[in-house]
Amino acid sequence: MHFDLPDLRLLAAIAATGSLSKAAATFPVAVSAASNRLRLFEQRCGLSLFTRRADGMQLTPVGRLVLEAARGVLGEARKLQDTLHELAGQRRITLHLAASTVTNSTLLPAVLGPFLADYPEVDLQLVEHKSVDVLRVVLADECEIGVYDGNLISDGLVSLPFRTERLVLLVPADHPLAGREQLRLIDALGFAFVCLPGERAMQRFVEELAMNLAMPLKVRVRAPSFEAIAQLVAQHAGIAIVPETAALRAEQELAVRWVALEERWATLELRVCFRGWERLSSHGRQLVSFLAEQ
């Protein structure tokens, strides 16, 4: 059975206005042309979609079902049109991705390049939050997609696995703790620390852990990145808590060693979260699929 999108648009316009003449004016086409298009559509369907009355046109029960399906087709057509415009470079797309310090600083920069190369029309905004706030901003529709610590409950969100990362203690190669295979945070709190700036999400998390142990962190110096922190640790400015990914890289280049932290909070089962597949933009779906495959 053949139909065109104008058939469906006319059907929706008549249903919205209750009048063939008003619907025809929205296209615009002559009333006779609109009437002929509707008549042919009904003939091809073998259905009567409207009841013609003196005061206008009213959908039949069958017509209401056809209208519901037609609206779905028209919605998908609009999405396709938007996607074609985006791919043709006629519109820039901005995706907002909320993630923790660890994810933004170590994992995402290493994997996002191929996605951005495949979709040059996308501008990606990375927003840093603590994991609990990642969940909050995604639930509030302030960010379309988030990456958070999967140990948290994500009620109201769809959640997919992303990566596993560990926080470890980074120390100079000749430090008293360098020979330990693992330790607890409290074992290290007597030493001075090299830290991220105080407003960074991960740094707030670590300092809250120390406060909960009644031993505030001894912050000797703050540095802007894990790379800068590793340089300072190698120069005996202090010790630091960093992601294992950053620690392994630093150990290859500098006179530092890393020690595992045995607390449960040190293992981050990172997950991708979003409100729902149908709520994502077409590019948002591609980004979620890409991250879930990493």
TrEMBL record:
Keywords: DNA-binding, Transcription, Transcription regulation
Gene Ontology MF: a single term: DNA-binding transcription factor activity
Pfam families: HTH_1 (PF00126), LysR_substrate (PF03466)
Domain HTH lysR-type: 3-60
Gene3D superfamilies: 3.40.190.290, Winged helix-like DNA-binding domain superfamily/Winged helix DNA-binding domain (1.10.10.10)
Keyword Transcription regulation appears in the UniProt entry: yes
InterPro entries the UniProt entry points to: HTH-type_LysR_regulators (IPR050950), LysR_HTH_N (IPR000847), LysR_subst-bd (IPR005119), WH-like_DNA-bd_sf (IPR036388), WH_DNA-bd_sf (IPR036390)
Transcription regulation in keyword set: yes
Any Gene Ontology CC annotation: cytosol
Family from the record: Belongs to the LysR transcriptional regulatory family.
UniProt-recorded name of the protein: LysR family transcriptional regulator
Native source organism of the sequence: Pseudomonas urmiensis
